[in-house]
Amino acid sequence: MRMSNLDPSDILASDARPQIAIAEGLRNGWFEIWYQPKIDLRRKCLVGAEALTWLCRPEVGEQPAQDCVAADDASAAELAEHALMTVLSDWSAFESAGFNLHLALNVPATILQDVAIVELTREYRPRSERWPGLILEVTEDQIVRNIKLAKELASTLRASGVTIAIDEFGAGYSSFSSLRELPFAELKLARGFVKDTATEATNAAICQTAIDLAHRFGSLAVAEGIESAADMQALAVMGCDFGQGALIAPPMPKARFLDLLQQRNAPAKPIGRVA
Fold first, then answer.
1. For a designed S-S bond to 22, which of 75, 204, 205, 241 qualifies (C-beta 3.0 to 4.6 A apart)?
2. DSSP secondary structure string, 23-58?
3. CA triplet 83, 158, 187: central angle to 5 degrees?
4. Cα(105)–Cα(50) distance, rounded to whole angstroms?
5. Contact, 51 vs 104, CB < 8 A?
6. 241 contacts 41 by C-beta, under 8 angstroms
7. Rounded to whole angstroms, how far apart are CA atoms 216 and 210?
8. DSSP code of residue 244
């Protein structure tokens, strides 16, 4: 499950994939955290990853949890807490492989108040002095619904080493004046604008504006959903800092991601497709 796509107010439907209750999945240990690598577009090296929740059942296989879970406020908060504790624990394993990674986790804004993020971070955070903190990704449309609350949460979380990233920027309808009120670490360009940015003038203009905006706010610009080398090169020329997507690598289980890190034990070593 990509946490940003799991809105507790919705029951996700799929004719081909029967839903399960989150409580059932947690009880049976069916949920796993998978990681999608994020690279520095200028240096072409791996710098971090987005943590995604997947449902892994022996009789069904592996699939994003967002496609097959029914959620309410309580169960969504429980799953978010499970994901948060897992990601904080996994960072130490990745550090042992020689990487000081920036890990990001998608959390719906609607349950941020229901998750004891500060308390859990204090208890489960890595004790290494190298830990760079954790990034929580919240979609743009969810943030602008209550910018005051988002600002308060961002200020509270920062003291615990947790920062906010605005996910799917460009897909919502926020105003720049609203964003000025929120301290955010990253601005993630929506995949709909990233796609064909090398050939579509409108997409390119939107991406360039978003990149410049992020930098003016002292934040990083991240492109998600990169599918072509041409788009990746165009984004790099625009000054986009980081990127992720199918061209670079799909989400993968922790063990596979750890193998990848161990194979590339020099963080600055250039990489191509890592899948």
1. 75
2. HHHHHTT-EEEEEEEEEETTTTEEEEEEEEEEEEET
3. 75
4. 6
5. yes
6. yes
7. 10
8. -
Whether 211 and 240 have beta carbons less than 8 Å apart is answered as yes
How many CA atoms does the CB half-sphere of 122 hold within 13 Å?
Answer: 8
Q: How far apart are CA 192 and CA 224, in angstroms?
A: 9
Residue ranges in the chain modelled with pLDDT below 50: 1, 3-15, 266-275
Beta bridge partners of 45: 40
Structure confidence at residue 152 (pLDDT): 81
Tokens found for residue 23 = 């409580």
Distance CA 221, CA 270 (A): 20
Considering the domain delimited by 3-261, tell me its CATH architecture: Alpha-Beta Barrel (3.20)
Q: How far apart (Å, rounded) are the C-alpha atoms in residues 267 and 134?
A: 19
CA angle in degrees (0–180, nearest 5) for 233-238-239? 100
pTM of the model: 0.83
Whether the CB-CB separation of 171 and 204 falls below 8 Å is answered with: no
Dist. CA 54–CA 257, nearest whole Å: 14
Q: How far is residue 192's CA from residue 227's CA, in Å, rounded to a whole number? A: 11
